[in-house]
Amino acid sequence: MQLAGKVGLVTGGASGIGRATVERLVAEGMQVCTVDLDADGAAAVAEEFGGTSFAADVGESSEVDAAFAHCVETLGGVDLAFLNAGIAIGVADLDALTDDVYRRIMRVNVDGVVYGLRAAIRAMGTDGGAIVATASLAGIIPFPPDPIYDLTKHAVVGLIRSIAPTLSAQGITANCVNPGMTDTNILSDSAKQLFAEAQFPLMPASQIAAAVVHAATCGETGRCFVCQPGRDPIAYGFRDVPGPRTETAQGRVPPGLRDGGTQLAGWADT
Q: pLDDT band for position 246 (50/70/90)?
Protein backbone atom coordinates (compact mmCIF):
# COMPACT_ATOMS: atom_id res chain seq x y z
CA MET A 1 0.00 0.00 0.00
CA GLN A 2 1.31 3.42 -0.97
CA LEU A 3 0.35 6.06 1.59
CA ALA A 4 0.80 9.28 -0.37
CA GLY A 5 -2.53 10.72 -1.42
CA LYS A 6 -4.50 8.31 0.79
CA VAL A 7 -6.70 8.87 3.86
CA GLY A 8 -6.03 7.62 7.36
CA LEU A 9 -8.06 7.52 10.56
CA VAL A 10 -6.35 7.31 13.95
CA THR A 11 -8.15 6.62 17.23
CA GLY A 12 -6.55 7.87 20.42
CA GLY A 13 -4.89 10.44 18.18
CA ALA A 14 -4.73 13.38 20.58
CA SER A 15 -1.58 12.23 22.37
CA GLY A 16 1.17 9.65 22.64
CA ILE A 17 1.46 6.99 19.95
CA GLY A 18 -1.69 8.22 18.22
CA ARG A 19 -0.44 11.80 17.88
CA ALA A 20 2.98 10.63 16.71
CA THR A 21 1.31 8.43 14.10
CA VAL A 22 -0.86 11.28 12.81
CA GLU A 23 2.32 13.33 12.38
CA ARG A 24 4.09 10.47 10.59
CA LEU A 25 1.17 9.68 8.27
CA VAL A 26 0.88 13.33 7.25
CA ALA A 27 4.63 13.34 6.56
CA GLU A 28 3.99 10.31 4.30
CA GLY A 29 1.53 12.39 2.29
CA MET A 30 -1.76 11.27 3.84
CA GLN A 31 -4.80 13.22 4.98
CA VAL A 32 -5.76 12.11 8.49
CA CYS A 33 -8.85 12.14 10.66
CA THR A 34 -7.82 12.36 14.31
CA VAL A 35 -10.32 10.66 16.64
CA ASP A 36 -10.19 10.97 20.41
CA LEU A 37 -12.42 11.26 23.47
CA ASP A 38 -10.58 14.55 24.09
CA ALA A 39 -12.31 16.79 21.56
CA ASP A 40 -9.99 19.77 22.14
CA GLY A 41 -6.89 17.59 21.93
CA ALA A 42 -8.03 15.97 18.69
CA ALA A 43 -8.87 19.36 17.20
CA ALA A 44 -5.45 20.72 18.18
CA VAL A 45 -3.68 17.82 16.44
CA ALA A 46 -5.83 18.29 13.33
CA GLU A 47 -5.06 22.00 13.31
CA GLU A 48 -1.33 21.36 13.66
CA PHE A 49 -1.04 18.66 11.01
CA GLY A 50 -4.03 19.34 8.79
CA GLY A 51 -6.91 16.98 8.12
CA THR A 52 -9.92 16.81 10.37
CA SER A 53 -10.91 15.64 13.85
CA PHE A 54 -13.83 13.93 15.52
CA ALA A 55 -14.64 13.46 19.21
CA ALA A 56 -15.71 9.90 20.00
CA ASP A 57 -15.82 7.37 22.81
CA VAL A 58 -14.54 4.21 21.11
CA GLY A 59 -16.52 2.11 23.58
CA GLU A 60 -19.74 3.33 21.94
CA SER A 61 -20.37 1.70 18.58
CA SER A 62 -22.54 4.55 17.32
CA GLU A 63 -19.78 7.07 18.00
CA VAL A 64 -17.18 4.93 16.23
CA ASP A 65 -19.48 4.59 13.22
CA ALA A 66 -20.02 8.37 13.25
CA ALA A 67 -16.27 8.99 13.32
CA PHE A 68 -15.70 6.83 10.24
CA ALA A 69 -18.68 8.43 8.48
CA HIS A 70 -17.21 11.87 9.20
CA CYS A 71 -13.86 10.78 7.73
CA VAL A 72 -15.51 9.44 4.58
CA GLU A 73 -17.67 12.54 4.13
CA THR A 74 -14.87 15.01 4.85
CA LEU A 75 -11.79 13.36 3.33
CA GLY A 76 -13.35 11.00 0.80
CA GLY A 77 -12.77 7.59 2.33
CA VAL A 78 -10.65 5.53 4.73
CA ASP A 79 -7.60 3.72 3.35
CA LEU A 80 -5.74 3.14 6.63
CA ALA A 81 -7.38 2.70 10.03
CA PHE A 82 -5.10 2.77 13.06
CA LEU A 83 -7.08 1.47 16.05
CA ASN A 84 -4.92 2.77 18.82
CA ALA A 85 -7.11 4.03 21.68
CA GLY A 86 -6.46 2.13 24.89
CA ILE A 87 -6.06 2.42 28.64
CA ALA A 88 -4.43 0.54 31.51
CA ILE A 89 -5.82 0.12 35.03
CA GLY A 90 -2.79 -1.11 37.01
CA VAL A 91 -4.74 -3.59 39.15
CA ALA A 92 -2.57 -6.60 39.92
CA ASP A 93 -4.83 -8.14 42.58
CA LEU A 94 -8.15 -9.33 41.17
CA ASP A 95 -9.64 -9.15 44.67
CA ALA A 96 -9.41 -5.37 44.31
CA LEU A 97 -10.93 -5.24 40.81
CA THR A 98 -14.35 -3.60 40.71
CA ASP A 99 -16.94 -4.28 38.02
CA ASP A 100 -16.85 -0.64 36.93
CA VAL A 101 -13.08 -0.63 36.40
CA TYR A 102 -13.25 -3.96 34.58
CA ARG A 103 -15.98 -2.74 32.23
CA ARG A 104 -14.12 0.53 31.62
CA ILE A 105 -10.98 -1.15 30.27
CA MET A 106 -12.87 -3.83 28.32
CA ARG A 107 -15.06 -1.32 26.48
CA VAL A 108 -12.06 0.75 25.37
CA ASN A 109 -9.41 -1.91 24.72
CA VAL A 110 -11.62 -4.67 23.30
CA ASP A 111 -14.98 -3.23 22.27
CA GLY A 112 -13.26 -0.22 20.71
CA VAL A 113 -11.14 -2.45 18.47
CA VAL A 114 -14.12 -4.61 17.47
CA TYR A 115 -16.23 -1.56 16.61
CA GLY A 116 -13.30 0.07 14.80
CA LEU A 117 -12.61 -3.06 12.76
CA ARG A 118 -16.24 -3.33 11.74
CA ALA A 119 -16.47 0.33 10.77
CA ALA A 120 -13.18 0.17 8.86
CA ILE A 121 -14.28 -2.90 6.89
CA ARG A 122 -17.53 -1.19 5.94
CA ALA A 123 -15.75 2.03 4.94
CA MET A 124 -13.12 0.27 2.85
CA GLY A 125 -15.54 -2.08 1.13
CA THR A 126 -13.91 -3.85 -1.80
CA ASP A 127 -11.44 -1.04 -2.47
CA GLY A 128 -8.86 -2.53 -0.13
CA GLY A 129 -6.90 -0.89 2.64
CA ALA A 130 -4.91 -1.51 5.78
CA ILE A 131 -5.98 -1.91 9.40
CA VAL A 132 -3.44 -1.70 12.21
CA ALA A 133 -4.30 -2.16 15.89
CA THR A 134 -2.17 -1.29 18.89
CA ALA A 135 -1.65 -4.38 21.01
CA SER A 136 1.38 -4.66 23.29
CA LEU A 137 4.10 -7.04 24.33
CA ALA A 138 1.45 -7.84 26.96
CA GLY A 139 -0.54 -9.36 24.10
CA ILE A 140 1.98 -12.17 23.67
CA ILE A 141 3.57 -12.55 27.12
CA PRO A 142 2.28 -12.57 30.72
CA PHE A 143 2.10 -9.19 32.46
CA PRO A 144 1.41 -9.75 36.19
CA PRO A 145 1.29 -6.03 37.15
CA ASP A 146 -1.93 -5.60 35.14
CA PRO A 147 -3.46 -8.97 34.17
CA ILE A 148 -6.71 -7.49 32.83
CA TYR A 149 -4.75 -5.17 30.55
CA ASP A 150 -2.85 -8.29 29.46
CA LEU A 151 -6.16 -10.03 28.77
CA THR A 152 -7.37 -7.18 26.55
CA LYS A 153 -4.19 -7.14 24.49
CA HIS A 154 -4.26 -10.91 24.02
CA ALA A 155 -7.81 -10.40 22.75
CA VAL A 156 -6.61 -7.82 20.20
CA VAL A 157 -3.87 -10.16 18.98
CA GLY A 158 -6.30 -13.08 18.62
CA LEU A 159 -8.88 -10.96 16.83
CA ILE A 160 -6.46 -9.48 14.31
CA ARG A 161 -4.82 -12.83 13.55
CA SER A 162 -8.22 -14.49 13.13
CA ILE A 163 -9.83 -11.83 10.93
CA ALA A 164 -6.84 -11.36 8.61
CA PRO A 165 -7.52 -14.37 6.31
CA THR A 166 -11.14 -13.30 5.81
CA LEU A 167 -10.20 -9.70 5.00
CA SER A 168 -7.53 -10.67 2.50
CA ALA A 169 -10.26 -11.51 -0.02
CA GLN A 170 -11.28 -7.84 0.13
CA GLY A 171 -7.74 -6.60 -0.33
CA ILE A 172 -7.54 -5.47 3.29
CA THR A 173 -4.52 -6.25 5.47
CA ALA A 174 -4.85 -6.47 9.27
CA ASN A 175 -1.84 -6.34 11.59
CA CYS A 176 -0.87 -5.40 15.13
CA VAL A 177 1.96 -3.36 16.54
CA ASN A 178 3.15 -4.73 19.87
CA PRO A 179 5.18 -2.08 21.68
CA GLY A 180 7.31 -2.67 24.71
CA MET A 181 7.72 0.16 27.21
CA THR A 182 7.03 3.45 25.44
CA ASP A 183 7.27 7.02 26.68
CA THR A 184 3.58 7.94 26.70
CA ASN A 185 0.99 9.08 29.24
CA ILE A 186 -0.03 5.48 29.94
CA LEU A 187 3.08 5.38 32.17
CA SER A 188 2.97 7.51 35.32
CA ASP A 189 5.75 9.98 36.08
CA SER A 190 6.89 7.75 38.95
CA ALA A 191 7.09 4.74 36.63
CA LYS A 192 9.13 6.73 34.12
CA GLN A 193 11.47 7.76 36.94
CA LEU A 194 11.97 4.12 37.93
CA PHE A 195 12.85 3.21 34.34
CA ALA A 196 15.31 6.11 34.21
CA GLU A 197 16.96 5.05 37.48
CA ALA A 198 17.27 1.49 36.18
CA GLN A 199 18.73 2.86 32.90
CA PHE A 200 16.03 0.98 30.99
CA PRO A 201 15.34 2.75 27.69
CA LEU A 202 11.81 3.87 26.89
CA MET A 203 10.93 4.07 23.21
CA PRO A 204 9.75 7.38 21.79
CA ALA A 205 6.23 7.32 20.37
CA SER A 206 7.73 8.12 16.96
CA GLN A 207 9.31 4.63 16.87
CA ILE A 208 5.87 3.04 17.17
CA ALA A 209 4.51 5.39 14.50
CA ALA A 210 7.23 4.10 12.17
CA ALA A 211 6.15 0.53 12.98
CA VAL A 212 2.56 1.43 12.07
CA VAL A 213 3.74 2.64 8.66
CA HIS A 214 5.68 -0.60 8.22
CA ALA A 215 2.67 -2.72 9.20
CA ALA A 216 0.45 -0.84 6.74
CA THR A 217 2.82 -0.96 3.79
CA CYS A 218 4.74 -4.27 4.10
CA GLY A 219 2.12 -6.29 2.24
CA GLU A 220 1.84 -8.88 5.01
CA THR A 221 -1.27 -9.60 7.05
CA GLY A 222 -2.12 -11.27 10.34
CA ARG A 223 1.23 -10.24 11.81
CA CYS A 224 2.19 -8.90 15.22
CA PHE A 225 5.15 -6.55 14.91
CA VAL A 226 7.15 -6.46 18.13
CA CYS A 227 8.69 -3.07 18.90
CA GLN A 228 11.66 -2.86 21.25
CA PRO A 229 14.26 -0.11 21.84
CA GLY A 230 16.97 -0.05 19.19
CA ARG A 231 15.28 -2.62 16.94
CA ASP A 232 13.29 -2.45 13.73
CA PRO A 233 9.77 -3.96 13.94
CA ILE A 234 9.98 -7.74 14.09
CA ALA A 235 7.11 -10.05 13.09
CA TYR A 236 6.57 -12.32 16.08
CA GLY A 237 6.97 -16.02 15.28
CA PHE A 238 3.96 -17.87 16.69
CA ARG A 239 4.47 -21.63 16.98
CA ASP A 240 1.91 -24.07 15.62
CA VAL A 241 0.07 -26.14 18.21
CA PRO A 242 0.79 -29.89 18.37
CA GLY A 243 -1.53 -31.99 16.25
CA PRO A 244 -3.53 -35.01 17.41
CA ARG A 245 -1.51 -38.04 18.48
CA THR A 246 -3.47 -41.00 17.15
CA GLU A 247 -2.67 -43.71 14.67
CA THR A 248 -5.13 -42.42 12.07
CA ALA A 249 -4.96 -38.67 12.64
CA GLN A 250 -1.31 -37.98 13.43
CA GLY A 251 0.02 -35.28 11.18
CA ARG A 252 -3.36 -34.50 9.60
CA VAL A 253 -4.56 -30.90 9.53
CA PRO A 254 -8.14 -29.94 8.68
CA PRO A 255 -8.06 -28.17 5.30
CA GLY A 256 -9.73 -25.11 6.78
CA LEU A 257 -6.82 -24.60 9.18
CA ARG A 258 -4.06 -24.78 6.58
CA ASP A 259 -2.38 -21.46 5.85
CA GLY A 260 -4.63 -19.63 8.27
CA GLY A 261 -7.84 -20.70 6.51
CA THR A 262 -11.22 -20.55 8.14
CA GLN A 263 -13.52 -22.91 6.24
CA LEU A 264 -14.07 -25.94 8.46
CA ALA A 265 -17.67 -26.80 7.65
CA GLY A 266 -18.12 -30.30 6.28
CA TRP A 267 -14.56 -31.45 7.00
CA ALA A 268 -14.26 -35.05 8.14
CA ASP A 269 -11.41 -37.45 8.63
CA THR A 270 -11.95 -39.50 5.48
A: confident
Q: Annotated catalytic, 115?
A: no
Q: What is the pLDDT of residue 257?
A: 62
Whether the Cβ atoms of residue 10 and residue 84 lie closer than 8 Å to each other: yes
Please identify which of the residues 102, 115, 149, 236 carries the catalytic annotation: 149
Between CA 240 and CA 55 the distance in angstroms is 41
Residue 8 near residue 31, CB atoms below 8 Å: yes
Whether the predicted pLDDT of 269 surpasses 60 = no
Architecture of domain 7-241: 3-Layer(aba) Sandwich (3.40)
Sign of CA dihedral 220, 74, 184, 135: negative
The three-state secondary structure class of 80 is strand
Instruction: Give the type of residue at 11.
Output: T
